[in-house]
Amino acid sequence: MATLLHVDSSVFPGEASSSRSVTAAFRRTWEEQLPEGTVIYRDLATDPVPHITADAWSAGYAAPTERTPEQSTAFAARMKLIEELEQADAILIGAPMYNFSIPSTLKAWLDSVLLLGRTAGEAPSAQGTPVVVVASRGGSYAPGTPREGYEFVQNYLEATLKGTLGLDLDFIVPELTMAPRNPAMSELVPLYEASRKRAFDDATAKAKELAQRLTA
């Protein structure tokens, strides 16, 4: 049966996190559609991936017989993450915007799974795998908004997930999530509510679509 790789990176737990709430809705629908499927779950906030080290990086360019013990240990940890990526039939990532970019824990995960000659390069090993990214943010950085130029989440992830790993990328973008808690944004609450509803609807629809595609 189908395997879903689910990666969350929000520092906030459960419903306190917009990205986690939407990825949870996607996953519930996925499991309803594929009750015998497998879910590999990575919570990068509670169980962070180590930031890339010189040993972990250089081991990817050294023959196995030439690696030091430290390189071998570090590379084994990278390979576990890479193999999870490769065995997934679909990928779900929660990527909230922190200070205009992705959480450092998600960047650490990406640094580990990006390996030239395997997951990256002329024939990426996970090429074509569908990936849905829930890119939540407290404000709006959509085209035409005052802070359009501060959008470094979708731009970066498109270059990394689609351009480098060759994944089939789709975004769900819950925005204005700070509106209910910031009095200065009170007039934006209706737009936030519409965005939130759209995000949950999209999560349900995309989960069903992917599940049906994989079982067709």
UniProtKB/TrEMBL annotation:
Signal peptide: none
Pfam families reported in the protein's UniProt record: Flavodoxin_2 (PF02525)
The keyword Flavoprotein is annotated on this UniProt entry: yes
Enzyme class: oxidoreductase
Catalysed reactions, semicolon-separated: N,N-dimethyl-1,4-phenylenediamine + anthranilate + 2 NAD(+) = 2-(4-dimethylaminophenyl)diazenylbenzoate + 2 NADH + 2 H(+); 2 a quinone + NADH + H(+) = 2 a 1,4-benzosemiquinone + NAD(+)
InterPro entries, sorted: Flavodoxin_fold, Flavoprotein-like_sf, FMN-dep_NADH:Q_OxRdtase_AzoR1, NADH:quinone_OxRdtase_FMN_depd
Cofactor: FMN
Binding, FMN: 10, 17-19, 97-100, 136-139
Cofactor-binding details, from the entry: Binds 1 FMN per subunit.
Keywords: Flavoprotein, FMN, NAD, Oxidoreductase
Superkingdom of the organism of origin: Bacteria
Record-annotated Flavodoxin-like fold domain positions: 3-164
Entry EC no(s): 1.6.5.-, 1.7.1.17
Residues passing through the membrane, by range: none
Entry's family note: Belongs to the azoreductase type 1 family.
Subunit text: Homodimer.
Its biological purpose: Quinone reductase that provides resistance to thiol-specific stress caused by electrophilic quinones. Also exhibits azoreductase activity. Catalyzes the reductive cleavage of the azo bond in aromatic azo compounds to the corresponding amines.
Official protein name in the record: FMN dependent NADH:quinone oxidoreductase
